[in-house]
Design brief:
Elements lengths: L3 H15 L9 H17 L15 H4 L4 E2 L9 H5 L9 E6 L2 E2 L14 E4 H7 L2 H6 L12 H8 L5 E5 L9 E8 L5 E3 L2 E6 L4 E11 L4 E11 L4 E9 L5 E10 L4 E8 L4 E10 L5 E10 L4 E10 L5 E10 L4 E10 L6 E11 L5 E10 L4 E10 L3 H9 L4 H17 L5 H17 L8
Parallel strand pairs: 1-7, 2-6, 5-8, 6-9, 7-10, 8-10, 9-11, 10-12, 11-13, 12-14, 13-15, 14-16, 15-17, 16-18, 17-19, 18-20, 19-21
Antiparallel strand pairs: 2-3, 4-5
């Protein structure tokens, strides 16, 4: 059996072979960024449970798999087939990536404002866009020992989305980034990288969707950096429904300037092992953030959500609500941190984590935490773990509902708390249908009586 070190060396050898083909090679800043990142990964290796931030998530199942670079192929995927995938018909400008590579023939750019730059990161790297040197890799840190996956993604910088929204732009439709992984005869990996720059006073809704075709194992390691300038309104949605043999690791890093409002909605339904890191830095006075999350896991799925609201300036607000529904032998992790820096007076921070366990074999490890270095703040946090309310079940069944219908109705009510916070109505409605079909369509989910 291969060891973690062996798989660590495997990715180092992949890097050495692929490096000459990476876009933008020869630019000193980019070559230096990739080299520093691969050296950091070589030094740290994959995280282990000895690290506090990975205490409850063991990545050995991932490191035991001999992943190969995914081939840039469509494998028969057409616009028509794409439209039949979840969220495939959402009215939005759409950038599609298959196995981590931009697919122009499946993408559409309708409804974008004048001056907006929306396209492939690889193309922007080849062009030598000066904005990339200024921002790419400046926010998603890969230096700490628990950020090895960010280091790996940064070293393999290849393709993804590069969005630059001009000052004052008001986008009427969302921008939808669709990442489709196509299983191959052997396990493959892709490492999408997204950089999103939102100009002062602009308003935009962004959606990242991660889907899988086929049942074989694959590994998606994604990093998204978002820079929200002064007085912006940025609503970010991430929806993950990959195959139950898939490994999914993703980092979202957002930085907010003065009076910027940023909202994150993170929904995870698929994957064998899933890790979501959602980090925001409130780096301007008067900025506000809202972090909302929902995950539903069954069987032997493992879903780990780590969040960080870093209050770096005074008079900022962050509100957070993450909810989990677990059945079978599924495992969940929530670690939510709020940091209030010494000069971040008048901070208002609220964090809640709520979890619903539907079977005796399901487990959740939850750790809300506060680090406060200022004295004039209002901060609260809490976590709950429970089961379906037997009195509510009895009431519904006494009104004629069979147990499965009563159970699903209560679960829907629990999940609805997160879904109703979504501003894009068409997106919210379709996510409700997908979630509730998943709850109702599985005989295993929530059974046991």
């Amino acid at each position: 059996m291969a060891t973690t070190a062996t798989r660590h060396d495997l990715f180092l050898s992949h890097f050495a072979r692929q490096r000459p083909q990476f876009p933008g090679g020869g630019q000193a800043w980019l070559d230096r960024l990739r080299q520093e990142a691969i050296e950091r990964f070589a030094e740290a290796g994959f995280p282990t449970t000895r690290l506090e931030n990975w205490k409850f998530t063991n990545v050995l199942p991932l490191t035991r798999t001999a992943f190969q670079p995914a081939a840039p192929k469509l494998d028969g995927l057409t616009r028509e087939k794409l439209g039949r995938l979840p969220l495939g018909r959402l009215d939005a400008a759409r950038l599609v990536f298959v196995n981590g590579r931009f697919a122009a023939e499946l993408s559409s750019f309708e409804g974008l404002p004048k001056g907006a730059r929306v396209g492939s990161l690889a193309a922007a790297l080849e062009e030598g866009n000066a904005r990339l040197e200024e921002h790419l890799g400046r926010y998603a840190a890969y230096q700490p020992p628990d950020r090895a996956f960010v280091a790996l993604n940064t070293a393999f910088l290849n393709d993804g989305a590069f969005l630059e929204i001009p000052q004052g732009a008001l986008l009427e439709k969302p921008i939808h980034l669709v990442f489709v992984s196509v299983s191959e005869a052997q396990p493959v990996f892709s490492q999408p990288r997204n950089l999103i720059l939102v100009g002062a006073g602009a308003q935009v809704a962004l959606l990242e969707t991660y889907l899988g075709l086929g049942d074989g194992p694959y590994f998606t390691n994604a990093v998204t950096e978002i820079v929200a300038a002064e007085n912006t309104i940025v609503d970010h949605y991430k929806f993950q429904l990959e195959s139950e043999d898939a490994f999914h690791v993703a980092t979202l890093q957002a930085r907010q300037a003065r009076d910027a409002r940023f909202t994150s909605h993170n929904v995870s339904l698929g994957g064998r092992l899933v890790r979501n890191d959602v980090n925001v830095v409130l780096d301007g006075e008067g900025s506000e953030s809202a972090l909302n999350g929902l995950f539903v896991a069954r069987g032997r799925q493992h879903v780990d959500n780590h969040t960080l609201a870093d209050h770096a300036k005074p008079h900022c607000t962050s509100h957070e609500l993450y909810q989990g529904v677990l059945d079978g032998s599924a495992a969940g992790v929530f670690n939510g941190a709020i940091i209030v820096r010494a000069n971040a007076q008048k901070t208002d921070a609220i964090q809640h984590n709520k979890n619903l366990l539907l079977s005796e074999g399901a487990t959740i490890n939850t750790k809300p935490q506060l680090e406060i270095f200022a004295d004039d703040v209002r901060c609260t946090h809490g976590a709950t773990v429970g089961q379906l309310d037997p009195d509510a079940l009895f009431y519904l069944r006494s009104r004629g509902l069979p147990y499965p219908a009563a159970r699903n109705l209560l679960i829907r009510g629990f999940a609805q708390t997160i879904l109703e916070r979504m501003k894009v109505e068409a997106l919210r409605v379709e996510l409700e249908e997908l979630l509730f079909a998943r709850l109702s369509g599985s005989q295993r989910f929530g059974e046991g009586r």
